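We close this part of the discussion by returning to an individual protein. The amino acid sequence and the backbone structure tokens for this protein are reproduced below:
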Amino acid sequence: MVRRYAEEQLLLVTRRYVKKFGNPEPGDTVVGYARFGEVCRDLDSITNVLWKSGTPSLQIPFLLRLTSDFTRYVRSFPPAPKASFAILRKLDHCFASLLCGQDIETHETLPGFENGLRGGMTTTEMIRCRSLVDQCRVLMVEVMRDPAEEDEEDEEAETDTDTDAEEPGIKGWGGVEDDDEMMLQLDAARVFEKTIVQLNERLGDLEPLQMSAD
């Protein structure tokens, strides 16, 4: 059920991304993305479902795929700092937790890790993860040099109001609260910082895979 949902939703995100570059066809129900904040919202929904599934064999490959998709899509839009850093912080939480077998904030053992790290990432997956993480960190520094989306400030103001009225989320999954230039650079420097710590502990000095830009 979760696998099918993740596959279908990631495919839908891809279709909406592709539609961004073409003219809508009559009767087509798939609408292209107008802003990167919309992409982040859809990826966030998929991440939530995967995390709640408690199934590492699904979480790991799909979260790696989702992160790879993020790095491909983000290049094609004006920056959406708050939405981008919010989803990246969530992915950082997920990967760091999956690498150590326990929630990185609460230190509770994750489902599937009751007998240790054998159900977690393989060495190949860890190397791929580190390559994606390194690529994403460099990319976010470059992307954030461009002017941000005009509508993001208004959207985030509404989102912040809605979030304040809801129950607190998982610790460590909060959004970015300030988007001035200094804070953007600091946030870019902190992308996947928890994951990097865990990868260094697990992999040591192994060389990362070279990922293509496609």
Remarks:
- Confidence is low (pLDDT under 50) at residues 157-169, 175-179, 209-214.
- The radius of gyration is 17 Å.
- The longest helix spans residues 123-143.
